[in-house]
Amino acid sequence: MAKQANAWIMQKKKKWSLMVLALFSLSTAMVFLMRSAFDSCNANSSSRFEEGRDRAAEAVRVVRSNAGPNPLQFMKSKLVLLVSHELSLSGGPLLLMELAFLLRGVGAEVVWITSQKPPESDEVIYSLENKMLDRGVQVLSAKGQKAIDIALKADLVVLNTAVAGKWLDAVLKDNVPRVLPKVLWWIHEMRGHYFKVEYVKHLPFVAGAMIDSHTTAEYWKNRTRERLGIKMPKTYVVHLGNSKELMEIAEDSVSRRVLREHVRESLGVRNEDLLFAIINSVSRGKGQDLFLRAFHESVQIIKEKKFQVPSLHAVIVGSDMDKQTKFETELRNFVIEKRLQDCVHFVNKTLTVAPYLASIDVLVQNSQARGECFGRITIEAMAFQLPVLGTAAGGTMEIVVNGTTGLLHPVGKEGVASLTNNIVKLATHVERRLTMGKKGYERVKERFLEPHMVQRIALVLREVLQKAKSHANS
Description:
Number of helices: 19
Number of domains: 2
Number of strands: 13
């Protein structure tokens, strides 16, 4: 009996291993942009933790007490039009696709429109459109009478990102006032060039705005008032949540071990080595250059002080081997100059980040300026029980508890010394690193799961639908 039991266990582990390896092979073949790559957002908000706190607490309470009916069930048979400024494997469009599938899951009729498409054929767009069609999401042209008819008939219209605002005047024209009362505007951007009247002039008149973090919401409130002289509509803060699929991998020890071994072998990193990773599209705003400086300095400190620690490695996930930018060339030249070729690794852009999260020991979230609007990769890393070294800016401050689930450092060049010290701290204190990872996982389970996000979105959609109905009746 014991031999049979052992054989069954080995067979099950082998099955999991093959499945995970298949997933990894698929992910490494996809040279795509990560869904966590959002535009940067502002950290200058003293009230970010106050606004919307009651709503967030209510969402957590309901999720805990009610594991029964889907909170989006009231959307059954509702017609929802989703308008995205683009269809790509970046954060905004992928989030809107997630919403599309959640709504389809409860029986809503969902129509997708992409307002800006390249004139030539695009394999990514083709693949994503077919993925939506397979899930029952209708895909329409952004222009033409059919798009107008759907917008007028829809119970709810979701504009995704500020740039999607241009679609209103370009397509709806005289019908814009009839559609605005049922528009929910989902905003992710925070860069200054998005604050243009042509994008957001209709923002004060929509039913509501949904934003990923309190910091972002506060920044939009202040910036639109001071720069454009317009007032934000009622604004709802909805923190994102990890998908069930990612959590299943994160919580399966066999999957994690197989992925860890496979990725580390491909990078030439031993199992006992310490691997620090930054997983973002390679750009100056994501701070890969400052991270590499801090990593180099931390390696030097460890050598000088003769700390007995495993070899340190850094991995940059989000590269583009085929189209190296000037910035990425600077990164690679720095690695050569400092003779870090054996311990710094560049990995192509990828949609599937689970293999890399399973293989690393610490996530570095080094987004600069106003930080991340939210930073989904942060909560994904925490699901894998990884401590996070993040900039003290933007949505990261609403996720990472400094000193408990990770360590924060200032943005800019002045933050390099602090990040260096934090790398050394986690490299030389195994127990602290592991404890922070466990605390991060507990925080994810407490408030950053898909059911939490669904509950938050449901509260928003219900209120927006009520507003639209009241306006129609009046």
